[in-house]
Design goal:
Elements (H helix, E strand, L loop, with lengths): L1 E9 L6 E2 L5 E3 L21 E2 L2 E2 H9 L4 E4 L23 E3 L5 E3 L5 H11 L2 E6 L6 H12 L5 H8 L10 E4 L12 H14 L9 E8 L3 H9 L17 E8 L15 H11 L1 H16 L6 E9 L18 H16 L4 E6 L10 E3 L6 E3 L1 H8 L6 E4 L1 E4 L3 E4 L2 E4 L1 E8 L2 E8 L5 E9 L3 E9 L19 E2 L3 E4 L2 E6 L3 E9 L1
Parallel strand pairs: 1-23, 3-6, 3-14, 6-9, 9-10, 10-11, 11-12, 12-13, 13-14
Antiparallel strand pairs: 1-18, 2-17, 4-5, 7-8, 15-16, 17-21, 19-20, 21-22, 22-28, 23-27, 24-25, 24-28, 26-27
Helix pairs in contact: 3-4, 5-6, 6-8, 7-9, 9-10
GO molecular function, one term: alpha-L-arabinofuranosidase activity
Subunit structure: Homohexamer; trimer of dimers.
Keywords: Carbohydrate metabolism, Glycosidase, Hydrolase
């Protein structure tokens, strides 16, 4: 059976710009994300550039990765940056107490991370240590990275082999200060955020965009406390927010509880629908936190940065439980697509987002096989690739009519998600069918501009838990989609069960 949904899109009414930075990524010193993922070392038989794995860089460059957050996560508030500079064989070791309780040798530090960002063509997002660090330590790190003259930290950087300063646009003031970043109360952290932001200085032409560690899920009190700590946000709209410029939000999707999150594979349809309903909760969270922010920030000077999001499943059997290694299936891909739709709809407030994480951890873009050295692109990777046309495009409102719903845990789950954008004479429409069994036809009611061409791609697979492996690299991979036809209102698109489809339009 096929059902029909209508999507009304006014192509001539562009909205807020969808920042490319909502397609950001996250690399923590956790499991095999850094070591064995990004970093293999200069003596590795795996092809690398100065120890950084070449095929990982190539795959992420193909995604046009806009930014990379590092070194954490919880690890950030245990990380002392001076331990990760200088000759590698002289760097002190530390215990990674949050993730597997292993010993970290600090082989991958500041210079290696900045080298990685340059290879990727990505902006660095550095998370500073508020939890166990000091104001002076953070201030020195900013100076070390970004100052050009003969200051003490600039001289230290030169002694370690880097003459020119780096450009560092994004700066995190702690991480999860309500939890692993210090178990602080909102009022305590708000005062610290102002203090740390003050000493995280702009040097030369490098202007920091300071992001204060924000709320966990629905903690509106945390967001309101941070908003009340800003200088007058209702004053001159041209004046930037001070002393920091954004607050963050974290939300993870799972089908179970924190103690038993559900398995990444082998799940049934009930778990599929529970997962989708929880993924769509991101829309509610963005609306609620934005409403609180609007009360204090009518000019929308303050950005909302969702710098940790994605699925979190039980670890794969036989792997270190502290390494958070999980498989990535078609279900994960559709979790990503509905999150990205929500970010597009909230483009006026959501300025950046970072999926957790990039390689070998949680909802990864890439998995690397330690036995064969193979690189696996996950279904989630393909959603990001299919959505590249949304980067820095103007959001278009999508008005859905005739969307069927399914009752999940007492709430109604819409079974179609969509978003759209326009840029440079083109438009991109993203469509997700969350129904496990029913194909759909979506009529694109396209208004305001003439459509002179179209091209579509589809991502789906026979099984809900289909995933890619070193033996089957393309079990879930995008393909050209022939199921698009002219319609009196615009176009008619076939949307198979459990699928993701993008339709690119040429406009005049």
């Amino acid at each position: 059976m096929t059902t029909t949904t209508t999507a009304i899109i006014d192509l001539d009414l562009p909205g807020a710009t969808i920042s490319r930075h909502v397609y950001g990524h996250f690399a923590e010193h956790l499991g095999r994300c850094i070591y064995g993922g990004f970093w293999v070392g200069e003596d590795s038989p795996v092809p690398n550039v100065r120890g950084i794995r070449s095929d990982v860089v190539a795959a992420l460059r193909a995604l046009q990765i806009p930014n990379l957050r590092w070194p954490g996560g919880c690890f950030a508030d245990d990380y002392h940056w001076r331990d990760g500079i200088g000759p590698r064989d002289q760097r002190p070791r530390m215990v990674n107490s949050h993730w597997g309780d292993g010993v970290e040798d600090n082989a991958f530090g500041t210079h290696e991370f900045m080298d990685l960002c340059e290879l990727l063509g990505a902006d660095p997002y550095v998370s500073g240590n508020v939890g166990s660090g000091s104001v002076a330590e953070m201030s020195d790190w900013v100076e070390y990275l970004t100052r050009a003259d003969d200051s003490p930290m600039a001289a230290l950087r030169r002694a370690n082999g880097r003459d020119a300063p780096w450009r560092v646009p994004f700066w995190g003031l702690g991480n999860e200060a309500w939890g692993c970043g210090g178990h602080l109360r909102a009022e305590q952290f708000a005062s610290l955020a102002r203090q740390y932001a003050t000493y995280s200085r702009n040097h030369g032409g490098n202007a920091l965009y300071r992001i204060a560690a924000g709320a966990n899920e629905s903690d509106l009190h945390w967001t309101e406390t941070l908003m009340r700590s800003f200088d007058d946000l209702a004053a001159d709209p041209a004046e930037p927010a001070r002393p920091f410029q954004a607050v963050s939000l974290h939300y993870y999707t799972m089908s179970g509880s924190w103690g038993d999150k559900g398995d990444a594979t082998g799940f049934g349809t009930d778990e599929w629908y529970t997962t989708m309903a929880r993924a769509l909760r991101m829309e509610e969270l963005l609306t609620r936190h934005s409403t609180v922010m609007d009360r204090y920030d009518p000019h929308r000077k303050v950005g909302l940065v969702v710098d940790e999001w994605g699925t979190w499943w039980n670890v794969e059997k036989g792997t270190n439980p502290g390494f958070l290694y999980q498989q990535n299936t078609l279900r994960d891909a559709l979790v990503a697509s509905v999150h990205l739709d929500a970010f597009h709809r909230h483009a006026e407030r959501v300025v950046m987002a970072n999926i957790a994480q990039t390689v070998n951890v949680l909802q990864a873009m890439i998995l690397t096989d330690p036995g064969t050295g193979a690189l696996v692109l996950t279904p989630t990777y393909h959603v990001f690739a299919m959505n590249a046309g949304h980067h820095d495009a103007a959001a278009l409102a999508v008005h859905l009519r005739g969307v069927e719903t399914r009752t999940v845990d007492g709430t109604e789950l819409p079974l179609v998600s969509a978003s759209a954008s326009v840029k440079d004479g083109t438009a991109l429409i993203s469509l997700s069918n969350l129904d496990t069994e029913t194909d759909r036809t979506v009529v694109l009611d396209l208004r305001g501009r003439d459509v002179v061409g179209h091209e579509a791609r589809v991502l789906t697979a026979p099984a809900l838990d289909a995933h890619n492996t070193p033996e089957q690299l393309d079990a879930v991979a995008p393909a050209a989609h022939s199921g698009v036809r002219p319609h009196p209102r615009g176009l008619e698109v076939d949307l198979p069960a459990h699928s993701y489809v993008t339709v690119g339009l040429g406009l005049r």
